[in-house]
Write a structure and sequence with these properties.
Elements (H helix, E strand, L loop, with lengths): L17 H21 L5 H16 L13 H13 L4
Helix pairs in contact: 1-2
Length: 89
């Protein structure tokens, strides 16, 4: 039995999307159709934005790589912590 919060709303369980997500999902097919239509827009920026949005949803956003300087203090401390954790010096 779910207990209501003081405002009368039943608490959500982990994984419960809630009403906003449900509403957004109802409009998702039309939103995708709009993106597809934008692929033929006269404005090149609109076409690029639509293409990027569709590709991100289909394949996920590209991985971002970050370069760290081995002399960086944060990197040095992280390496020290890792060595302590694994029992090496």
């Amino acid at each position: 039995m779910k207990r209501a919060t003081p405002d009368g709303v039943a608490p959500r369980r982990p994984g419960d999307a809630g009403p906003i997500k449900d509403l957004a999902m109802q409009h998702a097919p039309r939103a995708i159709e709009t993106l597809v239509e934008a692929l033929t827009d006269e404005n090149v920026r609109a076409r690029m934005a639509a293409a990027e949005a569709i590709l991100d949803r289909a394949y996920g956003k590209p991985t971002q790589h970050h370069e760290l300087d081995a002399d960086d203090e944060l990197v040095r401390r992280m390496n020290q912590a890792a060595r302590r954790l694994h029992g090496t010096r």
